[in-house]
Amino acid sequence: MLQQVNGHSCGSDAQSPASLREDLQEFLGGEAPLHQLDDLTKVNPVTLETVLRCLQARYMADLFYTNAGCTLVALNPFKPIPQLYTPELMRDYHAALQPQKLKPHIFTVGEQTYRNVKSLIEPVNQSIVVSGESGAGKTWTSRCLMKFYAVVATSPTSGENYKIAERIEQRILNSNPVMEAFGNACTLRNNNSSRFGKFIQLQLNRAQQMTGAAVQTYLLEKTRVACQASSERNFHIFYQICKGASEEERLQWHLPEGATFSWLPNPERTLEEDCFEVTREAMLHLGIDTPSQNNIFKVLAGLLHLGNIWFADSEDEAQPCQLMDDAKCSVRTSASLLQLPVDLLLETLRIRTIRAGKQQQQVFRKPCSRAECDTRRDCLAKLVYARLFDWLVSVINSSICADPNSWTAFIGCQVRGLIKGPVTLGSCSSSAPCLFP
């Protein structure tokens, strides 16, 4: 089957390998520097080598955004570039008559999406897809998009509206540290890898001013709570409470200096994301007061102690597995922090309840093997953490979500991972998250 790519026929019958090599050499050895090609549709011929050479040349020239038709390709610079994301630059792209003629930037995609909402007589929801492999910069990209809309979509005409817009902007930005502390972790490829999917909905009124927001999450990597790969870490929040708690809080949460936890690998590593105070301050701004925070951190500490509960094989299968000697203290501590009776916690971990019969239901209690006890312990921890995460999302939404009658359209930001590739961004009209195939 023949296809036309930039005026060249390509296909098994249209172009021989020798001819393709000649085109490659001509393109790569041309007079025009590759870093000047700001759109990959200008690459001719379109091959994996020419596309990668073009991206490499732009990367070496500190040009990290490249158009690919209606899609934007973003490369992680792996260094701070504050001048690339200033409020002044956001306003320049917002005020430009044709922002697509400016240098490729994430703000171009954001502005085009915003104008799509404004230009339509009947508001049609817009969605931006942010996809890429771990470490490509999806979290940073979504954060920049929210900052962009917080600047350009909050232009109120009265002082009262300005205060509302300012509060929404601050709470949207404050939700990031909380979501990242509880949903991100250090992996082999990324120190701040999102271990959950999220769809961020920015709600606009008829004047295209931001009146609220909402966050939908899915596919939380609950397994990480109880099982971490070699050289990786658990969720950031566990390290934050262990490193940032005061002496008084350490006593309350039973986290003494130098304590060892099975579910807290590589605690000696210090990351930028280990800042406990940033998370606590963000939670306060979202309406989670100090007593509620204290209860949350008690639950987290209880899960850490739960991971130190280990069982020994029972000599009699009819009897529950016995605790290892050094696990007895962990059971009492975990039960106290989770506000559970010790006997109930042990029964949950060691005894399986089986119900049989429809009419006359019978209940059987079967002691679990050591492997089953370990599995039940891990499942309990994952369930508690998932419920806590969902509760945090509901608190965030109650803090930033507008009244359904006050907004008419939204701009969504869908963040999802890929196996390989740089970050790609694109926008479309939809009433639900838009996913590229």
What does this structure look like?
With 437 residues, the chain is α+β, with helices and mostly antiparallel strands. Among the domains are: 1-63, no CATH class; 252-398, Four Helix Bundle (Hemerythrin (Met), subunit A). It contains 14 helices and 15 strands. The chain has a seven-stranded mixed β-sheet with strand order 3-4-15-5-14-8-9. Strand 12 and strand 13 form a beta hairpin. Residues 1-13 and 429-437 have low confidence and may be disordered.
Q: How far from one another are the termini? A: 22 Å
Give the strand order of the largest sheet, numbering strands 1, 2, ... along the chain.
Answer: 3-4-15-5-14-8-9
CATH homologous superfamily (4th level) name of the domain at 252-398: Myosin VI head, motor domain, U50 subdomain
Secondary-structure element sequence?
EEHHEEHHEHHEEEEHHHHHEEHHEEHEE
DSSP strand content: 15-25%
- Count the beta strands: 15
Shape: globular
User: Number of helical segments?
Assistant: 14
Helix content percent band: 40-55%
